[in-house]
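Dear colleague,

Following up on Tuesday's group meeting, I ran the structure prediction for the two-component complex that the binding team flagged. I've pasted the input sequences exactly as they went in, so you can double-check that nothing got truncated or mislabelled along the way. The structure tokens for the whole assembly follow below. Feel free to forward this to whoever is handling the docking comparison.

Inputs:
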Amino acid sequence: MDSHATVLLRAALVLYSLGLLDSLYSVVRQRRKLFKPALYAFALGATLHFLSLALASRALGRFPVQTFQQLCSMASFFMTVVFLAVYVRFKYESLAVFAVPPVFLLALVGSLGGPARDVSRPVLQWWISIHATLFLLGYAALFLTCVAGVMYLIQEHELKSKRPKAFYYRLPPLSKLEDIGRVALGAAFVLVTLGLIAASTWAFAKWGASWVVDPTIALAFLTWGIAFTMVVGRLAAGWQGRKGAYFSIAGFACAALTWVVNSGAHTFMSQ
Amino acid sequence: MSIQLIGMSHKTAPVAIRERLALSEEDAVALAARLARGPQLDEALVLSTCNRVEFLGSGEPDGLRSAVLRHLLDHLDQEALSEDALYAYGERAAVRHVFRVACSLDSMVVGEPQILGQVRDAYRRATDAGTLGGPLGRLIPHALRVARRVRNETGIGRTAVSVSSVAVELARRIFGELDGLSVLLIGAGDMAEAAARHLQNAGASHLYVANRTFSSAESLAASIAGRPVRFERLLELLQRVDIVLSSTGSPSFILTRRTAEGVIASRRNRPIFLVDIAVPRDIDPEINAVDNMFVYDIDDLQQVAAANIKHRRREAERAERIVEDEVEGILKRMRAHRAAPAIVSLNQRLEAIRRGELERYRSKLRGLTAEQREAVEALTKGMISKIAHHPIREAKRQASDPRPGFTFDDFRRLFGLD
């Protein structure tokens, strides 16, 4: 990665961590006004992160999604963007406490990569950038459904136990967590579907059917399958509440597994 | 001039004594006006609510005590006067008490919001009657600001502590906003009716009333703007409504787990909140284990209320710290304010000397150009500002942190300000 890009990413990392600390404090102390600096820190962090990615792209001449670190950095950027979009729509500060720690960890891993190097994979062309962007955005949205699912389970447990503890007073109502999960799932499904269509159309044209046997591809399809099942389950079978939350978490876990296995590029590409 | 407070509250006197001192709004204003007109006080305010009667004043030290004594003797017997029913605070303690009252830290239910409105109304009436205008007149609006700060920065008023308001709070934790939600009231009980009214006030718009005796359902529905439904339609309604309040006299469950599982399936898992206020219970508590069904009986509601009270207590501790901060701040400002008349007099005196001297030399300065005259103005103004700087700083310091051996009378004598 370009040295300026690294500096910008590290600055973004500092802002994410400051924002996280401030959001933790404001949520624990239940002081909504104190969340504002955290929000500015996240927004400024995301801006610096974007500039870092733009510089890295310029240095590479293509989208920086080749190495594991680059993918981590890109994923954390998209997760921040999705988190900020969801916050603007729903205004629940406690989301930050659950959503930002993984963002911070991914950005941290991303910042550990050295300056950008062209690893010269044969087929990393513009289409893969679109494929990766759509998938990473989809993963970010799935991550939010997972966060909403975890928060739902905690708040539901508080309500079912009838002994309100700290979370009861700090987490959003169940219906709002359902809304966040539903909106994020809808977005994730559209993005993953488009990403899969783009990638498979191109891959068929390039390699014929040989790529289908790639195990990571099977996992990618499994992710899409889970997202599809979740959408259908919610729409047709009325999966709400605990069941919906479990599926959101399972869906994201599967997507994360696919992503970790896939990080870098698929095996068939080097054939 | 000092701020003083004398009063009695639910903490120091039973209602049998408090009611003897209680005043109507008009009488409270009239009494405050009488107190403020008296020789001992410059300002007065009387706060009379169902939980407290308090007299506030600013003026001579102990001025309030002598001013209020007549009124107290007229209304309280010797026994009430000697039973520690009354408290009297001066300066710091009085300021702290006013802040604590406005912040609802001294209320029977800590965090209840009514007291803020009562203090605001008492202040408005006293201002209209012209009984404020000095430090007390500045203290009350400040107390209202402190109360707002406490509401914003702590969770003191955010949780419900009565059973019926706990039901509304729980409904909000499940459904978010209650606008447009439908409620089914089964049976007739005062508490269920109160909870239904709370839910209506919170936005629930469709209220159904079911009773084994249809005429009872009709009369209750009429009194709470609901719709009466026949008891046989219960199952059908359970599939539609969002919140159920049950308080029948049935000796056994009217809703079992098996029925509830069928209900939630036909609702396509749409959540439902079941509040069972009946004893013996109407709703099988096992239903709480079913996904998307939340069952609370009377003990559960009371348990949440108790947890909320505990939560409020923790928040109240934070509120007390804010109050201490604010007391310190306003006392500092009030003390600094005491230096203001002396500082204004000093500035006026020096300016008068400057103008007098310029006037005396006017004929000699006539030959100066406009530019030179401006320079003389600036020079003389600069001189008096430099001369005044140190005494003003000392006066302010003395006001905020008084040291023995220095009085503002000395200050005035020193500069010939009288």
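The radius of gyration of chain B is 32 Å.

Cheers,
M.
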